[in-house]
Amino acid sequence: MTDRTIVVSDLRDAPHFFGTVANRIWRSWWEPRGFPLSHITGLLEESLADGAESLCLVAHAGDRFVGTASVIASDLEERPNLTPWVAAVWVDPPFRGLGIGGDIVLKAACAALDTGAGAVHLCALPGKRAFYERLGWRLDEKDVGADRLEVFSMHRT
Ligand SMILES: CC(C)(COP(=O)(O)OP(=O)(O)OC[C@H]1O[C@@H](n2cnc3c(N)ncnc32)[C@H](O)[C@@H]1OP(=O)(O)O)[C@@H](O)C(=O)NCCC(=O)NCCS
User: Fold this and answer.
1) CATH number of residue 108's parent domain
2) Residues 108-117: contacts with CB under 8 Å, at least 24 apart
3) Can you tell me which atom of ligand 1 is nearest the CA of 103?
């Protein structure tokens, strides 16, 4: 029987999801801005290197891709001094509303804080505020940049 339990893996331990993760991130955030797929595959490859600052998590049910979230050094050019960031949070539509998005966001935040950072950051469009605040993220700033992004943080306790 196929195992349908959803688990979250480091992409280094589940590299066969590389293409799917790259595709989802590209289609959601980079293709609309005219970037080629190779732009995101290059960034994602950096997270596979030993000792990399970045990390990509993938949620999957056996070989079925479910969702992804990343930890990256820098995500917002208006806030170059803040690091690290949780970014590229995505759950495939059939799996939404099951708590998976919240789970991978918190796992990514914990991984970032485990590296010794005092705080981890995240930026999102205003429509996502309720989702992140419910997970314990603190709203630090509003109306940042042309996209009027909101900036959140989570702190080591
Ligand atoms: C945002 C996203 C990752 C949430 O994933 P998910 O697996 O559905 O998240 P969870 O199941 O943990 O949480 C869903 C809950 O958050 C709420 N939620 C999701 N998106 C929300 C939003 N934009 N505003 C407010 N609440 C939201 C849902 O209503 C749901 O609440 P409920 O449990 O009371 O019904 C998913 O909708 C997604 O991939 N969206 C497209 C990509 C995206 O916007 N990523 C975030 C970029 S900052």
Assistant:
1) 3.40.630.30
2) 108/55, 108/57, 108/69, 108/70, 108/71, 109/154, 111/55, 111/57, 111/71, 112/55, 112/71, 112/84, 112/85, 112/86, 113/154, 113/156, 115/84, 117/83, 117/84, 117/156
3) 12
